[in-house]
Amino acid sequence: MQWSYGVLTVPSRKDGLFPDTVASLSAAGFPNPRLFIDGAEDGREYSHIGSPASITCHSPAVGIFSNWLLALWELFYQSPHADRYVLFEDDIIACKNLRQYLELTGYPLRGFCNLYTWPQNEMLFSKHRGTEKGWCPSLQRGQGAVALMFDNYTASAILTNHQFIEQAKGTDDERICIDGGIMVTMKNMGWKEYVHSPSLVQHVGMTSVLGHDPFPQSTSFPGDEFDALELVG
User: Fold this and answer.
1) What are the residues facing 10 on neighbouring strands?
2) d(Cα 222, Cα 225) in Å, to the nearest integer?
3) SS3 of 219, please?
4) Are 153 and 183 in contact (CB under 8 A)?
5) ∠ at Cα 189 (126, 120), nearest 5°?
6) From the CA atom positions of the chain, what is the Rg in Å?
């Protein structure tokens, strides 16, 4: 299976959460990611961290929404026939062997996968699925865009969707809601967001670069030492 993946980051995270994220992703099966640095003129200071496959810098900064959109375009352009595309933010950790596990779980038809499970979605699992593990439609509120996975068809559908592209023309406030923007676009297409029980990544950033309240942490994440392959079978 061919993958194309990258990490979105900003200079203020270079010596903080970012190196831990890259190390965790390497153990998860995503080594040497493409880096998309918003607000940096030169990416040479990042070249020793995880040996990135490539480094793309935006100067001046284009903002979170546009950095995400441009990153997905670049992943798709560089690997137009990839089976899976994943964009990670710079303040997450993941289960070990996550990539290998994802290759065994299949991909939901007409949907996209959120590897981070918001607590409200965990309540949905608890209510309707008991202790069963695996993918399930979320509450469809678009909560959390720290680790999103798309198959080739879904990635191309997003990148060619007029409504989603139009959001890049909005004000700063209108452009920063990646998760909500994707969710609205998918809903209008009749597609769904899927989340996993347990959560496959954890959001560890307690300080938002935008000054927002931090995401709540997933309560089902089994830890970055947990081997995701134990979920098979």
Assistant:
1) none
2) 8
3) coil
4) no
5) 20
6) 16
Q: How far apart are CA 92 and CA 152, in angstroms?
A: 24
Protein fold of 3-231: Spore Coat Polysaccharide Biosynthesis Protein SpsA; Chain A (3.90.550)
Of 188, 2, 192, the C-alpha closest to 112 is 192
Residue 88 φ then ψ, to 5°? -110, 145
- Residue 121 has a pLDDT of 82
Q: How, if at all, do strands 147-151 and 111-114 pair?
A: antiparallel
In the chain, domain spans: 3-231
pLDDT, tens digit, for every residue of 72-111?
999 999 999 999 999 999 999 999 999 999 999 989 988 9
Residue 231 DSSP label: G
d(CA 51, CA 54): 9
Handedness of CA 36, 41, 42, 46 (dihedral sign): negative
The confidence score (pLDDT) of residue 113 equals 95
Token pair listed for 107: 């991909």
Q: Which secondary-structure segment (H or E) carries 27? A: helix 17-27
- The CA-atom distances, in angstroms, between 69 and each of 35, 42, 64, 129, 151 are 13, 20, 9, 34, 16
Residue type (1 letter), 119: P
Between CA 122 and CA 133 the distance in angstroms is 11
- Tokens of residue 1, six digits: 């299976």
Nearby residues of 27 by Cβ (< 8 Å), 6 or more positions away: 94, 96, 97, 224
H or E stretch including 146? none
Average pLDDT value over all residues in the chain: 88
